[in-house]
Amino acid sequence: MPRHTAELWNQLQHAPGVLVTVASVEGSGPREVGAWMAVFPQTLVNTIGGGHLEFQAIAEGRSLLSSSPHEGALVNRYALGPALGQCCGGVVHLKFEHISQTDMPMLRQRLPNQAKPLALFGGGHVGHALVNVLSSLPFQVQWIDSRDEIFPAQLPANVVCDHSDPVHAAVEALPSGVSVLIMSFSHAEDLDVVAACLKRQRLQGDLKFVGLIGSKTKWATFQHRLEAKGFSAEELAFITCPIGVEGIHGKEPEVIAVAVAAQLLQQD
Fold first, then answer.
1. What is the pLDDT of residue 84?
2. How far apart are CA 11 and CA 61, in angstroms?
């Protein structure tokens, strides 16, 4: 479950709130149509873009908390000009509506879930760092390792763990459209996962991205071994190795994690 959605469910267990949704945008605006924020007496969940627009929306939302929930939704128009202290130049319409715990089934259907599926093979130092980075990004992470004890006790809301031994057996059941990152504790496991991904791509063609951690030398060795398994040069070209956006050269797990997360965000 995406982190902001989990936070919303948690808050609604304790108190009703006001849901603020971007209903329409004319010209330039800080967020897209469907972006949302939930206003509660003492806290907020998510954002509609920050700045004076959000400050006014928070004030309006908190004033509505004291009104009757039966009064229905309210739509306000905000011109993003000097009067609002913003220079986007567009016009945003925000919808305000009361929400409570009883509205959770409706909210599950309505709120946009833009989390992208990601399968992360490997619970080592880079895997841990990457999970931390992805915890606040729009990804739904399936974290897979052959060592069940490797996973931490506390996980971000958008991460689920999967113990798979052999680890490459998990590839078959991955959701369609998933991106895959491979960084297990051994080159043998990495090779097995890459081969399983290539077999699936050959049969189904539904993996979005497959990235393998390692150097160009590692990938050259893997290419020879995969060619011996019958994979063509065209099929091997689907694998990205090394991974991470260019221009970031640090070897620290946290640096690698940021570079890889940036590369994932570049995918369509």
1. 61
2. 15
CA separation for the pair 100, 18 (Å, rounded): 8
Tokens found for residue 215: 């150097």
Answer yes or no: are the C-beta atoms of 96 and 73 closer than 8 Å. yes
d(CA 29, CA 173): 40
Selection from 156, 116, 113, 125 nearest residue 264 by Cα: 116
Instruction: Give pLDDT, residue 89.
Output: 67
| CA 249/CA 247 separation, integer angstroms | 6
Q: Is 258 helix (H, G, I), strand (E, B) or coil?
A: helix
Coil/strand/helix, residue 205: coil
Work out whether strand 36-39 and strand 91-99 pair parallel, antiparallel, or are unpaired: unpaired
Q: What is the pLDDT, as a whole number, of residue 49? A: 86
Report whether pLDDT(63) > 60: yes
Residue ranges of domains in the chain, CATH in brackets:
3-110 (no CATH), 116-266 (3.40.50.720)
Is the pLDDT at 113 greater than 90? The verdict is no
Report CA torsion sign: 119, 123, 127, 133. positive
Please, what sign has the CA dihedral across residues 107, 111, 116, 120? Answer: negative
Checking phi first, is residue 122 left (phi over 0); if not, alpha (psi -120 to 50) or beta? Answer: left
Residue at 93: amino acid letter: H
The reported pLDDT for the residue numbered 50 is 78
Nearest to 191 by CA among 200, 182, 199: 182
Tell me which H or E stretch contains 211: strand 209-212
Q: Which residue is it, tokens 């304790």?
A: 14
CA distance 150 to 144: 10
Please state, in angstroms and rounded to a whole number, the distance separating the CA atoms of residues 262 and 85: 31
